[in-house]
Design brief:
Shape: globular
Number of strands: 50
Strand content: 35-45%
Length: 798
């Protein structure tokens, strides 16, 4: 849905000569309230420690893929809000992908994945996606268990917000909880003065909502009594019925949204009232009531959303532009505008480790697909959340909804969705605030790609208003040589950097005769200007609780399979590797000890330390962006947290450790800019006398050389590394090696491709190898065409 089609109700509208307060508010809304939302697809809903999490992100501006942002931050947190890892994801047409490698010693608990663009930080943190992922570990002392008790509460919401004597009114009853929802619940409405005779009864549509209709009488007080399947009850007061007001009724159909407004005992009937319909903060419909009548009905046609599905916020304003009623409704419920993939061929075999393929039509308007293939166990478990519910529901509402995907399934109950929307409010803006002219404070603009501030230093001093030369090299490519002049603060700015490979930035300064470039006494740092932000909110409650692990720990079947898959992967990785005997046995001198003695002095010569030798041992660090990233997971008790500059800062036993470079106190940014090839030794020191907890980095001396089997181009000390975007790992599709003995291929995720392209020569083909048990496959296919029409299909193939 590229553009909203704005409809005016011509039979009721007259030209407006001067801008009213509402007109100005609508202009304010159009110009200042563009907002983004994220849907994050993961290959599984739960993981084992040591697994890899594959994810695909979709960023929307309303119901279209967002053109605003090219950068997405995806962060992995433990339940106590410690940042474990994070990715900077490149967005192309609002889409990006990546992965997290979980450590094998990760404690069993619920983890959270947060995703947001820099532009989203201008608005409420509540609208950033926080996805719950349980992670299991058979070696943990605690186990995840599903909470059996449900601490829920209920509220009742009259349609449109009004409850008027003598007027039949529809109510939605909404159950909320931070843990588990009750399986089902029922209720009744009573007159407080006559509690033994129910006025009406109701039962839940699903775990979230129910609805009922009643007509209040003057002077009566009403209550709703809700009881769940375990017998727990709650009594809630219905609002006191008023003697006057504006009553709103809404019905959604394939033709559009019919609304009826009825004025009751108003001082002035709703003449000159305005009806405004907005979709994603943009005006889609407007009508003025010019007739002197106490009741009016009209139909908002589906063309207000170009025939696409959407949530419309209906708001009614009086003659003084005061908000008097509002209602959320869904356009075309039960008639979702979703395309299906055109499958032209398939070759599927249930035999173990067989090759399978599904061919999509090359003639389709859809050219880029996200595909996930998993083994289907045949239990018909419905999806809890999917792209459709993220796009049309949970991306715009912050209250917890149980299994939101149910409202957009083939068996969806449209009455339940309508009741859910009666119980919700559109919180992305507040009409009363917009009417005053208030606008969001935009501190983070949607800058294109990544930008960096480069700080050249010569002889330990900033180079202010100086002519310098930067050589920027990506990988093995030839460097790009560009002259710059630093500003009055001594900075150079590199803007719109779009790279998934680390960039080496080398600094050169003109010598005094202006004929030669010099690198003498030069040092350079590159600071990112697009940075992740601290998460200040609280994680959502979950249905899980941690209990002390029993002697024989029971794991979910899918987790046992994941652990077996990890063992198989290790067998494959080590198939051609022979374990070497320790060659240092019997030697009079240990080269590592000798290097430690050579480089360490005084209080740095601690016995309680872990040493990494880069001179005598190949530490396989050449692929790491910097030494701090390489150190992650390599020493017991050593963890890292990202600071606001995107640099890993070391912590030992939860306390920040001191950083030393050649035994001189240094900061993390300086260490992060040090080329890995210049490092001779790293020493992790724990609780050592005056030094305490520390990480000591030692650089090469004399004729020392790194022990690496990888040939590298030496880097000068006048270089900094720009990490750029995190490049997604490749999901390998390959047959198991017959020489590797794998007793049970238990993979659950059989195929993952976040970017399956339709090339000119090969039709898009989904190809994968079966595991040892799958008889049928769950295949998810997502795509968008150039007009952002949605292709979405999840089906079972046998």
């Amino acid at each position: 849905m590229k553009n909203i089609f704005c409809v005016l109700l011509l039979s009721m509208v007259q030209p407006i000569m001067a801008q009213t307060k509402l007109d100005k508010a609508l202009t304010n809304l159009e110009n200042n309230y563009d907002q983004e939302k994220v849907y994050l697809l993961t290959d599984k809903s739960q993981y084992a420690a040591g697994d890899k999490i594959w994810f695909k992100s979709f960023v929307f501006d309303g119901y279209n893929r967002s053109p605003l942002s090219t950068t997405l931050f995806v962060e992995l947190y433990s339940s106590d809000k410690k940042l474990i890892d994070w990715k900077t994801v490149l967005l192309t047409n609002g889409e990006g992908s990546g992965d997290f490698q979980l450590k094998e010693d990760l404690p069993e608990q619920v983890y959270f994945v947060r995703a947001y663009t820099p532009y989203m930080t201008n608005f409420s943190e509540d609208f950033q996606i926080v996805k719950t992922l349980p992670v299991y570990n058979p070696n943990s002392t605690e186990s995840l268990a599903v909470s059996k008790s449900s601490d829920w509460s209920a509220k009742a919401f009259p349609e449109g917000g009004s409850f008027i004597n003598g007027i039949p009114t529809k109510f939605a009853v909404r159950v909320s909880t931070t843990t588990s929802f009750p399986e089902n619940w029922t209720g009744k409405v009573i007159d407080v003065q006559n509690p033994n005779t129910p006025i009406t009864t109701f039962k839940s549509f699903d775990k979230n909502v129910a609805s009922f209709t009643m007509t209040p009488a003057a002077g009566k007080k009403y209550q709703a009594i809700i009881q769940d399947n375990t017998g727990k009850k709650q009594t809630i007061d219905l609002p006191q019925a008023a003697d006057s007001g504006l009553h709103v009724e809404v019905q959604s159909s394939k033709e559009g949204i019919k609304y009826t407004l009825k004025g009751v005992n108003l001082k002035q009937q709703p003449q000159d009232y305005k009806i405004v319909g907005t979709i994603n903060n943009h005006l889609a419909y407007r009508a003025n009531i010019k007739q002197l009548t106490n009741e009016i009905s009209s139909l908002i046609p589906v063309k207000v959303s170009n025939g696409a599905n959407a949530i419309l916020q209906l708001a009614i304003f009086d003659e003084n532009d005061n908000l008097v009623a509002q209602r959320l409704c869904f356009i075309k419920p039960g008639n979702l505008k979703i395309e299906k993939p055109d499958i032209v061929a398939q070759n599927l075999k249930p035999t173990p480790r067989s090759f399978n393929s599904i061919d999509l039509s090359p003639e389709s308007y859809f050219k880029n697909y996200t595909v996930l293939v998993s083994e289907d166990n045949g239990n018909n478990t419905p999806e809890e959340e999917n792209l459709l519910s993220g796009l049309w529901l949970t991306g715009d509402f912050t209250d917890k909804i149980d299994s939101p995907a149910q409202y957009f399934s083939k068996t969806a109950n449209t009455e339940a969705l309508d009741a859910l929307l009666i119980s919700e409010k559109w919180k992305r803006f507040d009409w009363n605030s917009v009417l005053t002219g208030a606008t969001p404070s935009i501190k983070s603009n949607s800058s294109k790609y990544l930008s960096y501030r480069v700080k050249p230093i010569k002889n330990n001093a900033l180079m202010i208003n100086s002519n310098v030369i930067l050589a920027v090299r990506m990988g093995k490519n030839e460097p790009s040589i560009t002259p710059f002049k630093t500003d009055q603060n001594g900075y150079i700015y590199l803007n719109e950097i779009n790279n998934e490979e680390p960039l080496s930035v080398s600094l050169y300064a003109n010598s005094e005769n202006n004929k030669e470039s010099s690198t003498d006494n030069l040092f350079v740092t590159a600071e990112p200007l697009v940075n992740p932000t601290e998460f200040k909110g609280s994680f959502p409650g979950t249905k899980y609780t941690l209990v002390k692990a029993a002697g024989n720990k029971t794991l979910p079947p899918s987790i046992s399979r994941a652990i077996n898959t990890q063992k198989n992967n290790k067998k494959i990785e080590n198939a051609d590797i022979e374990i070497e005997q320790v060659k240092l046995v019997g030697k009079k001198k240990d080269p590592k000890e000798e290097l430690d003695k050579q480089l360490s002095t005084g209080m740095f010569s601690s016995m309680n330390s872990t040493v990494f030798d880069f001179v005598n041992e190949d530490q396989h660090a050449t692929g790491s962006t910097n030494i701090l990233d390489w150190l992650q997971g390599r020493a017991a008790g050593l963890t890292f947290q990202r600071n606001n500059s995107g640099v890993n800062v070391p912590y030992i036993r939860g306390q920040q450790a001191k950083l030393y470079l050649d035994e001189v106190l240094a900061d993390a940014s300086m260490i992060a800019n040090l080329p890995v090839t210049n490092i001779a030794m790293v020493k992790i020191i724990k609780n050592s006398g005056l030094l305490g907890d520390a990480v000591a980095i030692y650089t090469m001396r004399g004729d020392m050389k790194t022990k690496s089997n990888t040939k590298e181009t030496p880097q000068n000390n006048n270089s900094a590394i720009i990490k750029g975007y995190d490049k997604p790992s490749e999901f390998l599709v390959e047959m198991l090696d017959e020489n590797v003995k794998i007793d049970n291929d238990s993979r659950e995720t059989l195929y993952w491709n976040p970017n399956l392209f339709d090339s000119d020569y090969v039709p898009p083909r989904i190809k994968f190898f079966n595991n040892d048990s799958a008889k049928q496959y769950k295949v998810l296919i997502i795509s968008f065409d150039d007009d952002d029409n949605i292709l979405y299909d999840q089906q079972i193939f046998k």
